[in-house]
Amino acid sequence: xxxHETGIKVRxxxxxxxxxxxxGHYVAWMEIGRSALAGRFGLDAFQLAExxxxxxxxxxxxxxxxPARFNDELTIRTRFVPVESATMVFESxxxxxxxxxxxxxxxxxxxxxxxxxxxxxxxxxVTERLDxxxxxxxxx
Length: 140
Fold this sequence. Notes:
The protein has helices spanning 23-40, 45-50, 124-139; strands at 4-9, 53-54, 57-64, 73-81, 88-96, 101-109, 112-113. The protein has one domain (4-139): Hotdog Thioesterase (Thiol Ester Dehydrase, Chain A). By secondary structure, it is of the alpha+beta class. The chain is built from three helices and seven strands, in the order βααββββββα. The N and C termini lie close together (8 Å).
């Protein structure tokens, strides 16, 4: 399965006292990539809410490999990872302009209704969109 790619540039305010991108920004960058991919299929946070559901992050994993620095042009590679449970899992890989991997991570999202009631099966409207995403990623 292939990845959706989103480009960003490291801004001055994202660099810390060590002159590298602060580690917390990598999580935000993963969210940028995930939102871009999900939005293509009607599943970004607002679109999901319009369907009557929320997708809170219940698990976050990230491994930092190399630092990003001010003005670096990065690519966030994102894909949906099919799992057996009623959750949505997204993999993110952040690379520099030479394709060197800087960080890699996963986010796991539970699915709730708008009142926060956990869904134990992914609703049909969401499943249809996830299936379209999987098909698109397989072709990309």
